[in-house]
Amino acid sequence: MARPRTPIGTFGDIDFTTLGPARVRARTRVRDFDGQVRRVEATASSRKLAEHRLKEKLAQRATYGGNRQLTPDSSFKELVEAWLADLDLEGGLAPSTRALYERNMRQLVMPAFEHYTLREVTIGRIEPFLKSLAANKSYSYAKQAKTVLNLALGLAARYEAIPKNPVREAKRMKKPPSEAVSLTHDQVEAIRAAARAWRRGPGVPGPPPDGQLEQIIEVMLGTSARIGEVLAIRKCDVDVTCAPATVLMCGTIVYPKGRPTMRQPHPKTTTSTRLISVPSFTAAVLRERLVVVADEPPDHLLFFSRNHTPLTTNNVRRRLRSVLSEVGITGVSPHAFRRTVATVVDRAGGAELAAEVLGHSSSEITKKHYIEPDRTVNPLTAEILESLAPRRRVDEGE
Asked: Do 191 and 333 belong to one domain?
């Protein structure tokens, strides 16, 4: 009968040999993580110190995928570092997504679990943590924390540091009821007026704004594009020689860690690359921007800073909030324009067309998150229900 092999990472008995005065060697055999059995030894001035050095060597030996081997006694912090290194090794994430994952892990999850070992990160600790995060912050924060926690512990399970991923056993979080809300035409006009009037007029110190914010708003309203996509439009992406004019959405603005803001040569998803025919008010803005960059190369951005570098989405959002707060308009973000476009297109052409212009792979996403529900019942019902009208009595007609 074949003798069972010792488990990966374990070592046998330690043998000690006296090599001379104050010289002791500790030796053992260990089965490495490639399945091979190897001899490991260490020497020191005493038996106890030699054993200590041998165990240090054993602890530092094997690696897994370029990272220190994870075990049930590894700290959660060690798992996070291994997980982030694994993300970089795969290289399948957009830089913005990679940065978001790390930020969510370090800000939302690490404070709760950094002092635990992997064997201590159990469903009994995960579920209360997620519930508390949803109650004290928001459902969105809890969902983002669950995502990165699931990814990291999934890696630990694949490394066999834990028997299974406990996040998969957590009770599904119930999303609070909500629905998309679009802007009315009056609200859109108020936003336009606020942007046009901001820091202009007699008595306002400093140079007036360069007008890019107003133009960006018109492009968002005429394309449904995300703010990062609008800021990534290049001179070569626009064609105003055809009717209607078109703009190709084929990039977005990202912030790689340790590098300056840059244009990414593809949008958020593969279905987000799309050629959009734009209304006349957006075409007029695009013509204005083409005049500004007339002497620039084809790949120059339409919207840019004083130094001709990409505008950041955070700065545009901050400027929009500042402009609107001065006239008492709150709760409007660049995404509000996207929901407004989705709702307007849906009313006229249906959810499928709205999904197409927004760059969604499914109209279900558009209907669930972007289109404001229409609760108006078809007026035909009034005509149908006329059949239930009270009949005239004979004596009433005499």
From this structure: yes
